[in-house]
Amino acid sequence: MNPLAGAVALNLAFGCSILSIIALIAYNRTSDFRLFLVGQRLGLAISFFVFISTFVLGHQLMISNFDIDYVARYTSFETPTVYKISALWAGQSGSLLFWLFILSIFNTITIIQNQSKHHNLMPWVIITLSTIQLFFLVLTNFITNPFEPTQADFEIVNGNGLNPLLQNITMAIHPPTLYLGYVGFSVPFAFAFAALVNKDIGALWIQSIRRWTLVAWLFLSVGIILGGWWAYQELGWGGYWAWDPVENASFMPWLTATAFLHSIIVQEKKDMLRVWNMVLIILTFSLCIFGTFLTRSGVMSSVHSFTESSLGPVFLSFVFIILVSSFGLMYSRIGVLRSPRRIESVSSRESGFLFNNLIFVVMCFAVFWGTLFPVITEAVNGNKISVGPPFFNQINIPIGLALLALTGIGPLLAWRGTSNKRLIQNFAFPTILGLLSSMFFIFLKMSVYVVISFSLCIFVVAAILSEFVKGAKVRKRKFNESLFKAIYKMIEKNRSRYGGYIVHLGIVLMFVGFTGHAFDKEKEFGIKVGDTKSVANYDFTLIKMYEEERPNHYAWITDIRVTDMFGNFVTQLRPEKRVYFHKNPDINKRQPHSELDIYSTLNKDIYSIFSSVSSDNLTAFVKIMVNPLVKWVWIGGYILAFGTVIALWPRKE
């Protein structure tokens, strides 16, 4: 495939996006259905040309065509095939094209899926999606074109290759998953905007996008968890979340999207919180674009972000246009948006959802302010101020614990209001269990936050399991079923409710893992072959250290035997110190990298980093960390995904 074909396809997609918007606006004025069909087919044509462009760039990466600047920057002949594929989203221009590629897939599905329904909404849905595509086509055509030829007056013999940090299988999965979440919220936003234009703000647009929202939320959640897994496995600092600006950029839309998912339940069942829902979906999509801006503008220092570029003002302008147009339209429709119903009781499930939403939004604002404060202060007075994990932890740990409590309180409340008798019945067992567990943790002399977190986890698990038990008992009594069949049928009949409960259980297990961070132990030392060092009741003996040359790097490998305090063998750790591009005569282009090794159990992780080797190759400098309960974060992530899939699974007709 000629790279020129990719560039031409991008130009054609740009032209089709403009024509599609014009045709559909004309249809809205004239009601000539032929114009709708033209706009719809042009919308499909945009996606078709974007697909061609993406496949062309992918092919150029695979064949290592270094005449293209992007290929020369992010691949080399030595780059493994899987990382040549992932190079598509490793750089700025390629990642923007990939963003556009996913949006085009979603645009195509939306158009085909709604060919014979939602005739009032679809013209504006397609206009909105085509406008978003147009924005990214402007970027990829005129500002950062992925098919830009290499500017060099000599033949490029080999490319720079992919950053060693990105040569990890998780990084071949994490960005696409995250993008599927980011881009997925374009569809609910498009339906919300179309509903505002048409003044059709009932339950129809909510029903149209509920599944889309769940899918996007699932991918965003899994993408965030995979990002934490990659950081834990690859960066060598022993953690999975550092409140990095780009981490925060993905977390903020997750918070508002989670609030939106809870809020639309109230609108579907009780026709309330219409204004809230509009605000939340507008904020979620705007934060998705804002997160893309943070990653690509280079305004913030982050291990995830790209270098400084001219994209920042363009992205901010687009976010400004989204906010002004959406909230302006919303303000003009405020009369029809107001719900005729009101929340009747503080002890109702509706109020539980509302409190839940408020806390999510407060946490989002806290993260937003902490992320942007250094940029604002630097712009105002020229001083760089660092806002690190201590600030975010101090603010967000109490908020997070409040959310954890509401995760258990919400299911125990009834719609419209809960009687005092019902409150006592529902809350007695979980509350007593939570209080007893808190006394036990206090007896073990744990810190205040650890006691509160573990006690709330037990309270929430008891609350959710009691809901499963009550539902199963009713089915057993009514249909004379076995316990397991009753639970299965109960979930099958109400997948969204019980799938949500399973998601809550996953989040509780993740909180258990988060709380384990309070018990971390670490030690850094130099060690020679035959020496033994002790960390947190474990002994670490360096058995041997050897060197090995591999296709794309050179490695020093340690072999460390781990035994417990009684001398029993635990595991063998083999962390490595690698040098990528070790054959490059320019020493500045050689890239050192520590490939760590982890022994993981349900109870704790033993985490080893080989940071450097002495000049005489006799001493290895190693860092050992013992991190309790980390595995529960990943187990909770699996359960969260499983619960979301249950909620998504279509019912039998």
Can you describe what's shown?
By secondary structure, this protein is of the alpha+beta class. Among the domains are: 1-167, no CATH class; 392-517, no CATH class; 519-632, no CATH class. Helix content is 62%, strand content 12%. It has 20 helices and ten strands. The chain has helices at 3-30, 33-62, 69-74, 81-86, 92-113, 122-143, 174-184, 186-198, 204-234, 245-270, 274-297, 311-332, 334-337, 349-381, 389-409, 420-443, 448-479, 483-493, 495-515, 631-648; strands at residues 521-528, 532-535, 538-550, 553-564, 569-573, 576-580, 591-595, 597-600, 604-613, 619-628. The strands form two sheets. Strands 2, 3, 4, 5, 6 and 7 form a six-stranded antiparallel β-sheet that branches. The chain has a four-stranded antiparallel β-sheet with strand order 1-10-9-8, with no helix packed on it. Strand 3 (538-550) and strand 4 (553-564) form a beta hairpin. It is globular, with a radius of gyration of 27 Å. The two termini are 46 Å apart. Residues 303-307 have low confidence and may be disordered.
